Amino acid sequence: MKPIWKWVIGVITSLLIIVIVGAWYLGRHWKPILDAQIKEAVIKSTDSLYVIGYDDLNFNLITGNASIKSLRLTVDSARYAELERQHQAPDNAYNIRIENLRIRSFHPRRILTDRRLQIDDITIDTPSIHILNKYHAYNDTIVIKRDTQTLYQRISSILNEVSVGNVHFNDIHFKFSKKTDTAINETVLNNLNVKVSDILIDSASQFDSTRFYHTRAIDVDVPGFRYETPDSFYYVSFDRLQIATLYKQVTLTGFKYAPRMSKEEFYKRKKMAKDMAVIAFPTIRLEDIDLQRFVNNQNIHAGSLHIDSGTVLISNDLRYPKHPTDKIGKSPHQLLLKMKQSLKIDSVVLNNVDISYAEVSRKYQKEGKITFDRTNGVFYNVTNDSLALIENKTMTADLTTYLMDIGKLDVEFAFDMLDKRGAYTYKGLLGPMNGRPLNRIVIPLLNAEVANANIKRVSFDVSADDYRSRGSLRFDYNNMRLNLLTTEENGKKGSMKVVSFLANSFIINDSNPDANGKYHTGRINYTRPHTYSFFKTVWQSLLQGIKECAGVSPEREQKIMNAAEDAKKVKEKTGGFFKRVFRKKDKGNDDRD
Asked: Which parts of the chain span the membrane according to its record (predicted)?
């Protein structure tokens, strides 16, 4: 080997030894300097409110790797109390703990040569974040001077670029404690996972609309959550929440809103007749959501909301007293308009949702139930945004469902969102079905029975507002027979045959057109009681039209009620008479024996 190559190898070897030894030396001796600078920077930037600490800090200039173990950022309680006395304390205080923070390949050479901080990966294991919220009235009057500089403008004097390949937050534990004068309410989320991909801060990325806060994608995974309402009656839970900023999508699985106790216990504690709701949706998916708007203003603007299958069960128990309230101005579209949070969803899509309403009769002590099964449809222009409503003030709904899981019902709603009287219209068509399945609600609530009814179709077209409903209804049917029922002494239902015969023969039309060939159209002109809800008003309006088609005018309806009462009295009198006669006869026979 030529001497010159020996010299070259010797020089390179010497330089490598110098670099390695130098890096080792700097790593050991810069650590206390870096430690002091970090702690001083935190104290200065937070006005001594926070203290930082950790068990170990390691970094390697050659590999570009670094790690911090047991990192802690804690609030100084004495300093916080002092700021409260000075009316300078913030509403939120943070306590953060990270078990392990690892940085891989931060390329220190590029910082020196190009002023570019490039990091391949950052991993943050088991971060615990506790936010303590305490309201201070003086913060409402403080005017915060807003920094209008972009993030790049803030760092441009030091660095030309900051880029990070991936940041992993593993197993996050989050707790939010809201302190009031009387109690502390806590919200806890455990086992959260967050992945942030492709962070870039430079002169161009600050204008890149495809990025979300300088990131290409953020994926959030919340495995489960349960929240109990302050009134202690309900809970809200879900199995998993997933947020994907790249696809502008939020997916909620296993959603449930339900009472925390049985139905019987619910009404015992409520001590009043009030709707009880049980709502369960396996999947709720929000697509094309404007996450930037949501983060900035908590406004929900999205392209579509999909509810895939699920159940909505509403029930009431009229054996308990009612506390009527004024329902004027509280229809669904009016409540949407009154929401403080801005909402704009182009379409809400229902897919195979089962809806039911059950009610226990005060008079007959039995539960009646009506169901709308396999409901599909779309609500369009679901919004309370004032600018959107200037362009289109109408929210519409096009729905298809199956009444009692048999009769196909198509309904269209149109809501005028800007009308001061809450104007809306609805029209629909119920296809052929047998009327006997309606006994599930008719018998318990009306003590009557549909013995037979061949429903060919029901169509309706109604215009309504807060105070009145007007429209028409067509009810095509034949072979309708009703049985009026009475309760026997043994608790079983018995048919009032004579009264039923009179009602079917002289009061109720058994078909439409009737036996004389006359077709009856239901005219709807219904005045809404102020205590009636939107859905009850819709039902009562349609019922008015159905009665008129069946020939049950208010006068005829009163005749049925009078006939039923008279039959009951006759039965009591004649039943007592025959009982006395046969009892005497039997006694006489006994004497002769």
From this structure: 7-27
Q: 208-217 long-range contacts, Cβ below 8 Å, gap at least 24?
A: 212/245, 212/291, 212/292, 213/292, 213/295, 214/151, 215/245, 216/246, 217/244, 217/245, 217/246
pLDDT digits (tens, 9 = 90+) for 527-573: 999 999 899 899 889 989 988 888 876 665 565 556 555 555 544 54
CA pair distance 487, 571, nearest whole angstrom: 12
- List all residues 6 or more positions away from 147 whose beta carbon is below 8 Å from its beta carbon: none
Give CB contacts under 8 A, 24+ apart, made by 15-20.
19/62, 20/62
Buried b (16+ CB within 10 A) or exposed e, 320-359: beeeeeebbeebbbbeebeeeebbbbbebbbeebbbbbbb
- CA dihedral (122, 125, 126, 131) in degrees, to 10, reads -20
Strand-pairing partners, residue 218, are 196
Tokens (6 digits) for 55 = 């068990």
CA distance 140 to 236: 31
- Spatial CB neighbours of 305, under 8 Å, sequence gap ≥ 6: 284, 285, 286, 287, 345, 347, 348, 349, 382
Q: Which amino acid is at 454?
A: N
Tokens representing 520 are 């009856």
Structure tokens of 356? Answer: 């039911």
3-state secondary structure of 540: helix
What would the DSSP string read from start to end of 458-495?
A: EEEEEEE-SSEEEEEEEEEEEEEEEEEEEE-TTS-EEE
* Half-sphere exposure (Cβ direction) of 285: Cα atoms closer than 13 Å: 14
Sign of CA dihedral 340, 342, 348, 350: negative
DSSP at 274: -
Phi, psi dihedral angles at 23 (to 5 degrees): -65, -40
* CA–CA dist 490, 403 (Å, integer): 33
Output the average pLDDT for the chain. 82
Give CA torsion, residues 385, 388, 394, 397, to 10 deg. Answer: -80
Residue type, 343: L
The number of CA neighbours under 13 Å toward the Cβ of 15 is 6
Q: How many CB atoms lie within 10 A of CB 265?
A: 12
Task: Please give the single-letter amino acid code of residue 530.
Answer: H
For 186-241, what is each residue's pLDDT tens digit? Answer: 888 888 999 999 989 888 887 888 888 888 999 999 988 888 887 889 999 999 99
Using DSSP's 3-state secondary structure scheme, residue 572 falls into helix
The answer to whether 152 and 203 have CB atoms below 8 angstroms apart is yes
- CB-based contact 101:124 (threshold 8 Å): yes
H or E stretch including 254? strand 249-259
Q: Quick one: three-class SS letters along 389-409?
A: HHHCCEEEEEEEEEECCCEEE
Structure tokens at 97: 């703990």
Query: How many CA atoms lie within 13 Å of 501's alpha carbon, on the beta-carbon side?
Result: 4
